[in-house]
Fold these 2 entries.
Entry 1:
Amino acid sequence: MLSIEGFQSAFKYIQLFKEGLVCTVSLSAFTVILGFVLALVLALMRMADLRPFRFLDNTQGGEGRTGFIGFLSRFRPLNLIASVYIEVFRATPLMVQLFIIYYVLLAGLDLPTFKLFGLIRFERFIPGVIALSLNSAAYLSEIIRSGIQSIDGGQTEAARSLGMTQTQNMRYIVLPQAIKNILPAIANEFVTIIKESAICWTIGVQEIMSAVNSVKAATFTIGEALIIAACIYFCLTFPTSKIIEYFERKMSRGDKR
Amino acid sequence: MATSDKLIQVKNLKKYYNKGTLHALDDVTVDVNKGDVMVVIGPSGSGKSTLLRSLNLLEIPTDGEILFHNIDITKKKFVNKHGKVEKVDINLHRQKMGMVFQHFNLFPHKTILDNMILAPMKVLGVSKTEATEKAMALLKRVGLEDRAGAFPIQLSGGQKQRIAIVRALMMEPEVMLFDEPTSALDPEMVGEVLEVMKELALGGMTMVVVTHEMGFAREVGNRVLFMADGKLVEEGTPEEIFDHPKHPRLQDFLAKVL
């Protein structure tokens, strides 16, 4: 049961929660940035029309051949790599991915063992950031792709007919409109990242959930610490979605009559 | 006419869809001379839009040549006048071909002014002050200088299309391509757009116009092409096409639209 005394004793460990908060925020921030960049690359890869064996089919603009040659001529390696990546990372649990990265892939590496901001153990923090980023990139890339594909093709045609390159078209015309459309979904994903960063406790990253565990070990009660943790998480996620809502409003200036 | 007057030469242009079963363009050969106002008419599905969109490679032709300033822009490389092989930069050619679309395609997230100055600034490297000055002068020309700060959604269809025209003019193109510029407009707004186009034509701009506005074709055009089933069926002056049509397909078409 929860009790006032329980909260009082849990509050004695407030320093642990503060450090956990810094760690959770850092985990989420690094993940959001890394994940977003990776997601953008994946989304562009999935839409790329790079066909290295196109030359095998010189009939009717490259769509005439059937059979194996036809298949090979339409083969898009970038699309395949991105698709396989997305399916694998969406189809396996985040905890399994985290453990494979921490205990298998990075186990042999001697990661530098300094403390980030004087309190975060870098050699555990980095596997956490990598796992969270790789995982969220799979989801974010599908969101970004849907956003890009929701933009009318006439926008690209207008941009290209004005002499803009494909990159300029993406940067100034398509992406600003696409990101505006997908901001609610992005907000969801960013909030999910903050909440799911709790899983990094299992590889010994000292974030908020690890503070809960320390309090449990010291006071033999857990309920009060969990309530405190929940409040801290809420104080992180709620402003996040509100801030993104603000940007959404700001970017929607062109929608109002 | 001398070769130097030929701005665009289209030779045996073909565009096939559906693995070659659908011929959107079937062996079209035509020249656009400097100063021409060439109007392309024909029933829907006749390939007129495909022809126009091929001119700046928004459609990639299946076969044939498009020479712009004597450079075949459908190929990857060309030989310059010093005999050296150079890459064909399609972005460079598109800058010189302004395009106006049926559905305007203004950028909805940018103001009218930003719509106009973006490409000159990013593509040509014009300064913001200079681009803005030019944009305001053009807006004044089409009577929309008070809408510079508005967003496209706040404009009527006719206003949007006038903005689309001046946005293309910001790049100082050598030829303007119009893809059914009045087809998506309410009838009462067609006139204001045609008026701007007429002014452009009188100013000597080379224009290729795909349209269903026969009055415009007759009054402003100096050449009229009639297309059907992906083929160029008949070509002539407005008088020849509208008053003395020879081909039965054209006679049939005119009987329906006039």
Entry 2:
Amino acid sequence: MVTQYKCPNCGSDMAFDAESGKLSCPNCGRQDDIETFPEENILQEFDTEEAKEYHCENCGAVILTEANTTATHCSFCGAPVVLAERLSGEFAPAKVIPFTISKDEAVAAFKKWTRNGRLTPRGFMSGDRIKKMTGMYVPFWLYDIDGTAEVAAIGTRVRSYTRGDTIYTETDFYDVYRGIDLSYLKVPADASEKMDDELMDKLEPYDYSELKDFKMPYLAGYLAEKYDYDDEALFSRVESKIVPYIDSYIQSTIAGYSTVSYTNKQIQANKSKVYYTLFPVWMVYYDFENKEHTFAMNGQTGKVVGKPPISSGKVAAWFAGIAVSGFVVLKGISYAMGGVLW
Amino acid sequence: MVNRLNWKAPFLFLVLCLAVFAGSTAVFAADSHIYDNAGLLTESEIGELEALAEEHSEKHGADFLFLTTTTTNGQPVMTYMGDFFDEWADENNQENAVLLTIDMGSREVYLAGFGTAETKLDNNRVQQVLDRIMPYMGAGDYGGAFRETVLTASRYMEFRPGANPESIFHKLWFQLGVPLLIAAAVVGSMVMNAGGRITTTARTYVDGTNTRVRSQQDRFRNKTVSRRRVPKNNGGGGGFGGGGGMTGGGRSFSGGGRSF
């Protein structure tokens, strides 16, 4: 089943516009709210069989997709199409954060980011070799997590004082117990196999106040994927993500001791709710010195992540600059304190 | 031929004058710095230390003197030293000196600074020099003690009066090491963060209303007490005569002494 959004004015294919948050027509400029877009303008072609081949409604060309793709463009006429059946049933997303950064803004933000790279080679900094820029909705699982932690520890308080010519060191030992209720909301983990986990983690955080109930038109004009891993499979990854959070919370509840050694720590974390959610990501493919570098940009906040090339000359220059100026400053302090310069 | 010599003669005279003048500044620093009445040093040691004292005396315009004795004739070592210096100063027409006195009779050592050295080697610096030479005194290496005195006092006298020459800010390893560490840390974090930083924290996803301590207990269990004596930092016996004083001849000095 292929879905296209036809402009009620002129019949062109409409796409989601990140700046206004509406469906907009590239031809006549008409904009429609996603909530109120007239049903009759949603053009859907039902396949009679479970064919894995989709045809563009405009030109009839075969839409070539990977098995996970849920939204793409017709490779022949460029019309935005959404593959609805890959977004239904168990693959129906619950929530979506729409793009708020348009392609032009993304290009500008990326160029600005390359200029800020203090260690990147000069040629890289111009930011003018963007090979391809793809707006993509990446599937994430958001977990609401309930849990408990039971912690037993021995804490010490050390005090020392001098009486006469003897130094007394008093160490008080305490049995410390904490029973803790834990709750974390909407902890994300990316569910797409081809997205680098580390890269996706660095894109966080997203602003959840713009989390919307999922509607298909948000995808029009972008690429979208469906998940490769279900919520069960990814839960261990989320667990490993929140354990450090829990540890630091536990630590914050045991205050006022000189040392704390844990004798027993039991953490239980269960997912109470999961939301299948699509997050907006601009993928930037950048050519530099015959190598393609891939960067990802948070399509909501503009944060850029990815490994840029590092210029060893610049690293050396920074290191030498800081070390030498630090030496000069310390020499100056020494001189000001009555020392000699050489 | 004769003419030429005549022409050269005044020039030679001038060179001679210059040599005498240069010599006179050297003479201004005394020709003898070691007065080893107790016979603690060997001939070769005396020669070596004399040369060292000479070199540093010229550098500061103050003589580095070494006096040893087996007896002070019942006088305190400060008085004995003061009398010696009054005599020496009049003889050599030199008021600026650093004088290290060792009395083998009472096993005491006294370090004093006269004239310009009274401010350049003030009481605090005298104590710092003494700290450094006491290990030599304990080991019986009296020549080593004087060598250390000359080198350390000479180095201290480069610093402005009042400054603490042993401050960590004057150490080269500190001045080099700290900027290198800072540079490594800064550049290291720049490299690490070039690909984007993780900006989520433990508080990003926490549900503040439902994350709480349900029950808690901090129960006193037991207590241990350990005792140790206040450490004393006097490796080489007691100190005396700190703060300097005045010689019988009315010369004021900075100084300090220790027993060994």
